[in-house]
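Exam prep: given the inputs below (a chain plus inosinic acid), describe the expected output before reading on.
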Amino acid sequence: MITFAFLGTKPTNNDMVDVILGLQWGDEGKGKIVDTLAKDYDIVARFQGGPNAGHTLVIEGTKYVLHTIPSGIFRQEIINIVGNGVVIDPIVFVEELDKLDRIGLDYHSRLLLSNKVHLILPTHRMLDAAKEAAKGSEKIGSTLRGIGPSYMDKTGRNGLRLGDILQANFEQRYKSLKRKHLDLLELYPQIQFDLADEEQKWFAALERIKKLSFIDAEYFLNAQLRKGKRILAEGAQGSMLDIDFGTYPYVTSSNTITAGVCNGLGIAPKHIGEVIGVAKAYTTRVGSGPFPTELFDEAGAEMARVGHEFGATTGRPRRCGWIDMVQLRYTTMLNGVTQIALTKIDVLNGFGQIKSSEHYLVNGQLSDQMPYDLCQYEVAPKYLDHPGWNQSLEKITSTDGLPDKALQYINYIQEQLQVRISMISTGPARESIIIA
Ligand code: IMP
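Solution:
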């Protein structure tokens, strides 16, 4: 009989910020895991990314998609922070607030924004669209939410921050940045964009956002830690989309790995506690870029169909493939992962055989490492077969109830990554989860 291999102990978080982030190319199901964990925390804080993210939560049968607002918002007792590492588009942000208003959720005292958050201007979105269009077949497949251009202005020291909107010279600074963008846009082919209309919506959205609290989030969070409050840092996208370690240039523009918590919230490395890495039981990717275990056959189509693999932000179909242990070992290492939440294992229920890529053949040589540039080497996965369990996992609430073959697969992943799997998600609903 196969039993669940229990590695290690449960987390403690004295004086520590725990982290939850994606270990693949995003869309690992982080929203649901944050929602599951949030009840053990006082504060949930987003540390990077922006409205390119789409965190899906299903609560009492209703689906909610959050883009910028932290996933702790649905629990009344939790404070939610948007950290300085995040970029916000006021228009999208207010649309999210509208959704919360419609369901009567009171967030006013629980949603706090760092005044160092950078703003996505309408012209950032124009630039995103124009630059992507100009790349032709080399396009990154950006969500076109203005992420790249706004982070470029941040690092280029041109950006506008949330705290700036309260300053007397804000409008003048906005105009000057807009002018720069319009000059830059002259270099690109024309794109369809009603700037006047978007600007009007943008300024109206800022007036709504002004009613929320802007804080020095780094002081706030460190003070809360000293008071013994429990903080969960919520990542967006996935580690393979990290600007430094992802499949560059097919990445997003922020540090999506644990290190991003330090500069995205103002938390010192010594305060990083548990790192909960979220990984799907298979792999998906949306947008362009290398994906060694991608499937182009019926198995991939089946994963997409059963797993409803369409982007939560853009609705684009996600590319699907087998789990990639080379890739997961890499991101487990980069993040210092201490526990794993394995999601969507139920999507594999009907598969007679499951595969995992344990090594790569890089230019014909066996390797267990990520090559420098997946785009420039010939990379072929070397697969290991696992028997499928051909059984529904619905209503299973403990690892004891899992079929042997599912446990074998789970234990294999633990052994490969040398990290315990502490949560196994068996369906989209809040209650479809096994806490191991
Ligand atoms: P950008 O961050 O919108 O510029 O997109 C850059 C790349 O990251 C594209 O391939 C996007 O599809 C991908 N990406 C951005 N955000 C997400 C996400 O939240 N989930 C999955 N992929 C994402």
